[in-house]
Amino acid sequence: MRELPTLPAMPAPEPTAEGYTRREALVMGLFALAAAATTTGCAVDRQAFDDFVAKHFKDLSPAELQDRLAQMEKRYTESYGKPVKVSATPAQEGVLFGYALDLSRCIGCRRCVYGCVEENNQSRDPQTHWITVLEMDKEDGVNLQNANAFYDHETVPAPGKFYMPVACQQCENPPCVKVCPVAATWKEPDGIVVIDYDWCIGCRCCISACPYGARRFNWGTPHIPKDEFNPVTEYLGNRPRQRGVVEKCSFCIQRVRKGLYPKCVEVCPVGARKFGNQLDPDSEIRYIIENKRVYILKEELNTQPKFFYYYGL
Amino acid sequence: MTLISKVGNFVTGTARMAFLGGNKVYYAWLAFLAACIVQALFAYAHQYDRGLISTSMRDSVSWGFYIGNFTFLVGVAAAAVLLVVPAYVYDWKPIKEVALFGELLAVASIVMCLLFVLVDMGRPDRFWHILPFIGRMNLPSAIMAWDAIVLNIYLAVNLVVASYLVYCGYHGIQYNKKFVWPLVIFSIPMAISIHTVTAFLYNGMASRPYWNSAILAPRFIASAFCSGPALLLILFQILRKVSAFEIKDEAIHKVAELMAYAMGFNLFLFGAEVFKEYYSNTHHLVHYEYLFAGLHGEPSPIAWYAWMSLAFAVISFFLFLIPKTRRNIVTMNIGCVLIYASVYIEKGIALIIPGFTPDQLGQVYAYVPSSTELRVAAGVFGVGFLLFTLMVKVSVAILFERPQAEAQPAHAEAQPARA
Amino acid sequence: MRMRPVRLMASGLFAASLLTTACRPVQEHGPRWGKAATAAKQADDTTKSTAKTPVKTVAAQFPVAPPPFSDGVFPCSECHGKTDVVNRTPHPVEFHEDIVLHHDEKNRWCLDCHDARNRDKLHLADGRLIDFTESYRLCGQCHGPTLRNWKAGEHGKRTGSWSGEKQYLLCASCHSPHSPGFKPLKPQPAPVRQEAIK
């Protein structure tokens, strides 16, 4: 038999410390197909592949989680030009968060909206606001059909109007969690409803299901100016999101799990916002729930929010 | 022939049947569909590159043209049952010969449904998250997960039955009733289930009072049954003219009659919804006001579609109900077009948009599909119609144009392969 | 000046009630704020007699932010001596023209809150002197329910940690004592209309 010409040696694929699992190999094949089919012509680089096969947050082992956090920190530090920290702080025991907002005090200044935007790394272009402030007539009361989110006065409060900021109510019986087909959103033990941005498929069932208009979708690629980026981030909270995934208020999970108040509570100039642990009988949130006239938005839907509007005056 | 070579033969043979032997009109039609698909690929590439921001959907109206078409097409797929029930359950010969075409329509429709879901996803590269075992399915609570399951089962059942029947027809062997019949009977509750589950997707949402109605599932089934077969009736008449396809007038008239009753029921349910909203006159009426008129002094961009849909529905109902107009070929075809258009609007624009307008906090965003959405949707329809055209051409060729080979038992011994 | 007996009794009762309210062990309307509550609870739980546990001063129970003085105005005693003769009848003053009183000005004037002899202090209705850091006690004389809510953390703002140390803001930190009503603010921009997002 004549000698066959030798073929050049093919470069071996880069193995990880653990090597490729069977599932990784399967999705690698799928990814290769997907990559070939797109006109973006993305190279099968390690980062894109890691994103593609990324496991659900709840399926990550502690070592894998640390690995992922380190990867993310490296990536975000490069992108934003400052040292970025990504944590995955677990919920504290014996904590169920509660939030109260005094409707008689809110003046609709929107400082909470923009404080939140800065703290939680929301996209500036296209613009994303987690908090919507509704202006309604005092005579009419809470009537969402006559609410205006786009008011623009010289000064607030405008005469005869009152203001109701709405963001995620962190429901105890959340419809968004119920409808997500891939379980990318769930309720944590301390009551915060979180989203795994790397698992969300962007089907927007949750946006349809939310009665409070709290969820936002990244229709385009989010942009945050580098100098305004908040480098203290949380995996399930304010780390930069990608295009095509859903996001929403997380009660500033990166702050509250370290014992701080959410940003909106701190920036409110009139002290209309209150926050605390509902399970602590000495907290101000318990005082409000027990002593004030508390109002729950769309209570008849039985979502059991952690957000209590009240009338302090 | 061994089984493998039989299947191989079937594949190459049917491919030849699909692409060869057609007339100029046929190839023009294929070219048109191919053009639709190609332009859609460019449009979708643009959408994949920029994201869904290239559609008109925004946070207030987060589902739009794609999901509207998806909902309509699930109904069309479910409508195959309108042919299957008389054919297999009642063994009514005139329809039995053509029930296959209902199943082919179901296959093409489900393929289009799955494509519409894919183009609507924010992260289509993560589609594997919804697959069982390698992904994470949020069962039993997520209706979308159930929808994925039932749609794929229905697709599989129809694909298996249709392929098998065509395969048997191709090789001239008698199909195995014991294999086909249970699958076909199973496809009947599956057809109901796909559209019921799709309806549950909407009516389970307490956040959207326009959809949160108990009769949404029955409405979906009724409107599906009256619109899906319309396409088939027109198709049968065309096939009768251009090929050896045979269908008795009786069969066409029976299907039209069943469509009349389905539309009657659909109108009744619609009337029930309208009564409830207008009579109870709660804040939830605001969605119907947007649908039929407008809000805050602004006329609604969809109002005239809604009225058109209603008018078409009533007209086509009478056209199909009255035996004279049902049997008259002109009025029957007018009725088919009107009924299809009516339900297309009812399940698309008139279902999705008022559900989101005004949104959960009372804000109004007037959604009108963008050019990207229209182009991509045209491409998806192109894929579906192309698939359906090819399958129909093959089926007509096999069932009506080839001389029937002697019937052989399905479990005949395989002939030894040629040396 | 000697106080009349009735006034003495009234102010004594007031002081007593204030102290007992502040120092009473946790019951339904006891102190609810972090450290004070924990201390009171511990005192209640571990000892039968509260006499053994030292009662915290009012100031220590409410760690407040520094009083928001205008630049250079404090200490007032740099200008106001202790032996100045003072006209206690309300009259226009020559200095401090920048302060326009808009706080029940028909019935109150400067010396109803500021002490006539020691301008570095405020005085309660019974004449007792209090520091500017405890000005909430003075506000609470008229605004009782508000003071109660403030102590519970419902009124006003507290910064710090929801689960630990908190710092209160004085009433005067947000409400100018001379003109306490909030002035209207310019709102930050309205959200971009979704139609404009391309």
Give a description of the structure.
- The complex is a heterotrimer of chains A (313), B (419) and C (198).
- Chain A has 313 residues and is α+β, with helices and mostly antiparallel strands.
- Chain A is 25% helix and 14% strand.
- In chain A, the strands form five sheets. A four-stranded mixed β-sheet of chain A has the order 10-2-12-11.
- In chain A, strand 5 (185-187) and strand 6 form a beta hairpin.
- The longest helix of chain A has 19 residues, at 62-80.
- Chain A starts with 21 loop residues before the first helix and ends with a strand.
- Chain B has 419 residues and is mainly α.
- Chain B has a single domain (14-413), classed as Up-down Bundle (Formate dehydrogenase/DMSO reductase fold), CATH 1.20.1630.10.
- Chain B has 16 helices and two strands.
- Chain B has helices at residues 3-19, 24-50, 65-78, 81-89, 93-96, 99-120, 143-171, 177-203, 216-242, 249-280, 285-292, 303-321, 323-327, 329-347, 349-356, 371-401; strands spanning 294-295, 298-299.
- Chain B starts with a helix and ends in an 18-residue tail after the last helix.
- In chain C, strand 1 (122-123) and strand 2 (129-130) form a beta hairpin.
- In chain C, helix 4 packs across helix 5 (144-152).
- In chain C, the strands form two sheets. In chain C, strands 1-2 form a two-stranded antiparallel ribbon. Chain C has a two-stranded antiparallel sheet with strand order 3-4.
- Chain C is globular, with a radius of gyration of 21 Å.
- The chains are: A alpha+beta (313), B mainly alpha (419), C mainly alpha (198).
- Chains in contact: A-B, A-C, B-C.
- The interface between A and B is large, with 57 and 53 residues.
Topology:
The complex is a heterotrimer of chains A (about 325), B (about 425) and C (about 200).
Chain A: H1 22-37, H2 46-53, H3 62-80, E1 85-87, E2 97-102, H4 111-119, E3 132-137, E4 161-166, H5 175-179, E5 185-187, E6 193-195, H6 205-209, E7 216-217, E8 232-234, E9 246-247, H7 253-256, H8 263-267, E10 273-277, H9 284-291, E11 294-295, E12 307-310
Parallel strand pairs in A: 1-8, 2-12
Antiparallel strand pairs in A: 2-10, 3-4, 5-6, 7-9, 11-12
Chain B: H1 3-19, H2 24-50, H3 65-78, H4 81-89, H5 93-96, H6 99-120, H7 143-171, H8 177-203, H9 216-242, H10 249-280, H11 285-292, E1 294-295, E2 298-299, H12 303-321, H13 323-327, H14 329-347, H15 349-356, H16 371-401
Antiparallel strand pairs in B: 1-2
Helix pairs in contact in B: 1-16, 2-16, 3-6, 3-8, 3-9, 4-6, 4-8, 6-7, 6-16, 7-8, 8-9, 9-10, 9-14, 10-12, 11-15, 12-14, 14-15
Chain C: H1 5-23, H2 34-46, H3 58-61, E1 122-123, E2 129-130, H4 135-142, H5 144-152, E3 158-160, E4 166-168, H6 171-174
Antiparallel strand pairs in C: 1-2, 3-4
Helix pairs in contact in C: 4-5
